UniProtKB/TrEMBL annotation:
GO MF term (any one): phospholipid scramblase activity
Cellular component, GO annotation: plasma membrane
Composition bias type Pro residues, residue spans: 1-18, 57-81
Function noted in UniProt: May mediate accelerated ATP-independent bidirectional transbilayer migration of phospholipids upon binding calcium ions that results in a loss of phospholipid asymmetry in the plasma membrane.
Keyword list, A-Z: Calcium, Lipoprotein, Palmitate
Database matches in Pfam families: Scramblase
Gene transcribed to yield this protein: Plscr1
Name this polypeptide is given: Phospholipid scramblase
Cofactor: Ca(2+)
Segments for region (Disordered): 1-130
PANTHER family: PHOSPHOLIPID SCRAMBLASE, PHOSPHOLIPID SCRAMBLASE-RELATED
Family that this chain belongs to: Belongs to the phospholipid scramblase family.
Length: 357
């Protein structure tokens, strides 16, 4: 007995029935076409394998097959003028063009100023303070008022023994900026009185000398122009920056404020009678031609007890803020000269009130 689907060995070939009602030979038959030596060669482009689109022969003339999906989603050559978007790189990096456009000049990696613009080629001088200011006087450039307070000497107040005068120099808020100390011997102080010569040292808060005053001895007489009072101002010591020179006048106390070349730059004019009675005594600071008043040196009322029993005096100096700092220092020296000439008492001698007494 034979197995199902296989003909007996002695049975001749016959068509085997197939599903659907048709029969095929039990063995392969030669197909006409390529591989059959009795058939002509196929036309160029013919393939026995399935072609895209399902045709088995060359496509019709002019036929363009539709693009097939490519790996990565590419769909064949892009249209004319199409520019693909750049592919994102790790970390957000976007590569630049392979070659720069025509005329493109890349910027230097470490730009620096050209030699003509390099600020280090020029040395700009430091201008924190005005030039020509003597050392230690920088603070005077910022103020327009000075207060001078003489210190009370107990020995002088009780027994009348003249001691070296000491002063505190303050700003308008009462802060001490300098101090002044007279340098003199005992005999000169008590024998020559207010006409005595002296050296006065003005120091800052660090005890550094910033101004040195020199007053020579001269007689006091308004009738003798050769004996007029004078004061030399040095800053620093040994460098003269100006003079205070008494100007001859029969009744009024007048002084010339001079620079280092002895040229008059300002004048000081006092009252005819330098006596204060519950009020201030003003010495006006005027221009060179005395046409206008620009400041003053004021002897301030110190109180009844101080005025009667001591020669302790308080002064105020006012001047323009933009005045030359050297002139400001000379005006400070003029304040001390005025104090010695008109408000200094020695022993039993009363103070001098006018240029005559």
């Amino acid at each position: 007995m034979s197995g199902p689907g296989y003909p007996p060995p002695n049975q001749p070939p016959y068509p085997v029935p197939q599903p659907g009602g048709y029969s095929v030979p039990p063995y392969p038959m030669a197909q006409p076409g390529y591989g059959d030596p009795t058939q002509p060669a196929p036309p160029p482009g013919f393939s026995v394998y399935p072609q895209p689109g399902g045709y088995q022969s060359p496509p019709p003339h002019g036929y363009q097959p539709s693009p097939q999906p490519q790996p990565g989603g590419y769909q064949g050559p892009p249209p004319h003028g199409y520019q693909p978007a750049p592919i994102a790189q790790p970390g957000g990096y976007q590569p630049g063009p392979l070659s720069p456009p025509h005329g493109y000049q890349p910027a230097p990696t470490n730009p620096g100023p050209s030699p003509a613009q390099d600020p280090h080629n020029k040395v700009t001088p430091y201008s924190g303070v005005p030039t020509g200011v003597p050392p230690g006087l920088e603070y005077l450039t910022q103020i327009d008022q000075i207060l001078v307070h003489q210190k009370v000497e107990l020995l002088e107040a009780f027994i009348g023994f003249e001691t070296n005068n000491k002063y505190e120099i303050k700003n308008s808020m009462g802060q001490k900026i300098y101090k002044a100390t007279e340098k003199n011997d005992c005999c000169t102080r008590n024998c020559c009185g207010s006409l005595r010569h002296f050296n006065m040292k003005i120091t800052d808060n660090n005890d550094q000398e910033v101004i040195h005053l020199v007053r020579p001895y001269k007689c006091a007489s308004c009738w003798c122009p050769c004996c007029l009072q004078e004061l030399e101002v040095q800053a620093p010591r040994g460098t003269t920056i100006g003079y205070v020179v008494q100007t001859w006048h029969p009744f009024l106390p007048k002084f010339s404020i001079q620079n280092a070349s002895r040229e008059t730059v300002m004048r000081v004019v006092g009252p005819c009678f330098a006596c204060n009675c519950c009020g201030d005594i003003n010495f006006e600071l005027k221009t060179k031609d005395e046409g206008a008043s620009v400041g003053r040196i004021s002897k301030q009322w110190s109180g009844l007890l101080k005025e009667v029993f001591t020669d302790t005096d308080n002064f105020g100096i006012q001047f323009p803020l933009d005045l030359d700092v050297k002139v400001k220092a000379v005006l400070l020296g003029a304040c001390f000269l005025i104090d010695f000439m008109f408000f200094e008492k020695t022993g039993e001698m009363s103070q001098r009130n006018t240029v005559l007494s």
